[in-house]
Structure formats: structure tokens, C-alpha cells
Amino acid sequence: MTTHPQERAAVLRAALADELEADGRLSDPVWRKVFEAVPRHAFVPEFWTLTPQGLRHVTSGDPDWLESVYSDEALATQLTDGVATSSSTAPGLMLRMLQALDIADGHRVLEIATGTGYNAALLAQRVGSHQVVTVEVDPGLARTAEERLRRCGHTPLVHTGDGRSGHPDRAPYDRLIATCGFSTIPSAWLAQVRPAGLIVSPLGWGTVRLVVADDGRAEGRFLPERSYFMAVRAAGSTGVPAHPGRPEATSGRITGLDLTAVAEDEAFRFVLSLVAPDTGFAFERGDADGPVTAVELWGPDGAWARAQDGRARQAGPRPLWDVVEAAYRLYVDHDRPGRERFGVTVGAGGQRVWLDAPSRPLPVVGAAER
Ligand SMILES: C[S@@+](CC[C@H](N)C(=O)[O-])C[C@H]1O[C@@H](n2cnc3c(N)ncnc32)[C@H](O)[C@@H]1O
Description:
The protein is of the alpha+beta class. The chain has two domains: about 5-220, 3-Layer(aba) Sandwich (Rossmann fold); about 245-370, no CATH class. The chain is built from ten helices and 18 strands. It has helices spanning about 5-20, 30-35, 65-70, 90-100, 120-125, 140-150, 185-190, 260-265, 265-275, 320-335; strands at about 45-50, 55-60, 75-80, 85-90, 110, 130-135, 155-160, 175-180, 195-205, 205-210, 220, 250-255, 280-285, 290-300, 305-310, 310-315, 340-345, 350-355. The strands form four sheets. The chain has a nine-stranded mixed beta sheet with strand order 7-6-5-8-9-10-11-17-18. The chain has a five-stranded antiparallel beta sheet with strand order 12-16-15-14-13. Strand 9 and strand 10 form a beta hairpin. Helix 1 runs antiparallel to helix 2 and helix 9 (about 265-275) packs across helix 10. The protein is globular, with a radius of gyration of 21 Å. The mean pLDDT is about 95. S-adenosylmethionine (SAM) binds near residues 112, 113 and 229. S-adenosylmethionine binds near residues 116, 141 and 163.
């Protein structure tokens, strides 16, 4: 007996919900009902997955399409010059972020980064379409998402624009959720979320949950989960900092850092994303399974650093290798803290990231405002 695709999708969705419940990422029964009601497959008729052989294009005609849709994987849905510029976030992470948002009936929610429209559909299913505004910078993506949302019976306001400005016309919001990567929380958001409202947003290689105070400041800690979102971008760009190329004349100095420890420690890489925001990071090994032999960082401001064979070279406006060394010392001295020990305070005076308490700010060496 063959099963109807909609029935099969429902079975797979329930199985994924069971899996996410079992490992603690889905704990709220209200969100379980929402998750089971929204067909992710309606938003991802085609996508790319990463395999050991490279990117694989999967379409609704492929026999394993539905299984891939109902796995806990991020699905790349648009490539620009080989770089993913839109995706559907992994459902487990999405649900953790939605639950952290502490949404109640009647809440007005602003979503930044519509992408496929799937998360907007989850929000619309939870609070009602008229309570949801979603902003997407890419006009083609916004149009497609709006059509797919309508076909599923959801009509949130889909606005084409730069999410860094929020959407003041419908403010104030009770909740704001962003699903593209930021290195600073845009100040426009603080003015659009009401006091005691919540903001859940990627920041560096983590996701922060901020409570907005009466004076318009916002403060909170990072969720413990790993999170790697594609960078916020202007319309028509990929958001990935271009590699400045290797400067010829840079003097080297000795570095004692163990490059394998630096490159392979995921929790440290998160710290680095906070103290050296907006930097690309790459490493090389002599053999596939061997130690890391070189580490390189670069920023959109032309900052560049490379460490290899016990020597470090750096150039440009930010001393990136000095930042790596200082951050690694701080990380080890504080017993290799996880994401949940870090927090952020944002206000008129800018943004401070801190470890354990707001009174313990981290030394951040950012690129100049672009
Ligand atoms: C990870 S996807 C969003 C996933 C989406 N929430 C979903 O459920 O499919 C990131 C999206 O952020 C969008 N984006 C990037 N920069 C943006 C900006 N400045 N304003 C609004 N959206 C932006 C990208 O075009 C991309 O579609």
C-alpha cells in the first residue's frame, strides 16, 4: 500500500518532533502542536545539502526529499557565486530560539530574515498571521516566501527591506526574532520592542536572548547551543568578507599558541567571534587527520593575520593575531567557559559583551563601522 505524500510528511514530522523532544530541544507542548501543523516541505521544494563529496542538489522529485526535509538539518535554498545566501534553519535550533522567545497569545512578533518563510509560518500558526511581520532583504526571496505562506493559509506582512532597520510602521512589538547573523544588535530594534519585550538573535557564533529595559537598553545571555547563521547582508551582496590577499611585507613574530587547539576548539571559536567580530577564519593541515599547521584570519577592513611554523604575521588596522592570543589566554584562565556564561548589554552607548556579569566586559577589537 502506498501512503499519500501529505500523510507520509505528517508521520515524518511527528517522528522528528519525538526526536527533538527526546534530546530536550522541544519541551513546550504548544510548540509541538505548531511544529506538527506546519508543513516544512511546502517551503523547501528544492535545496542543497553538504555531503563529503560536496553540495548535493535535492528536489521534490528525489526519493529522499521528504526524509531530508524532516531531518534536523539546515537546508541551503539559494546559492550566489557558490555561497549560500538563504537557507531554512535546522528545526531543532529554530525551536530552541522560538521557545526562548517566550511567546504568549496575542503577542506581536517581528521576524528579521524571512528566507523560505517557514519560520514565519510557525510564528503565524502560533499567534495568528495579523500579529506577525517578517522582513527579507532579497526581493525575490520575499516574493516566493509570501506566495508559499499564502498557499499554506498564512498572511503575515512580508516586507522587503533591510532588517537592520526593523519595521517601525507596526511597532511596538512584544517579541523580535532574527535568523541571520549579526556582529552588533541594531539600535533600531531597541526602539521598536516594548519594555520587558524580548529579542532573540544570532550574535557572533551564538544566539543571544535580550530583555528590553524601560530605559531602552537591552541585556541578556547567550543560549548554550551552537549557532552559525549566514551573515546579514545588503541587497545583492553575499555578506562574506572578501579575503584581502596575503600582504607581502609583514614582519613576523614568535607565537606560542597551539594552532590545533585554537582551530578545533569550537567554544573558543565562539569567543573569537565576539572579540574579533566580522572576521573570516580558515586553517590548514599537512595531512587530512594531522595537526593544524596554519591559521588565517581576515576582516572586511583589510585586517589580516596568519600563524604558521611558530610565527605569526599580521597587517591592516586590527592586530588580529594579538587578539587571538589575548582571547585564548582569557578563555583558558576562565576554565573554558561555554556560551551560556557570556552576555551582552546594548544601549545608546553601543554594545558590550561580557563574561559572567555585565561588570566584566570583554576587550572587543571590531572593524570600523562599514
Ligand atoms: C537563515 S536564512 C533565514 C531563515 C528563515 N527564517 C526561514 O525560516 O527560512 C537567512 C536570511 O536572511 C536574509 N537576510 C540577510 N541579510 C538581511 C537583511 N539585511 N535584512 C533582512 N534579511 C536579510 C537572507 O536573504 C536569508 O534569506
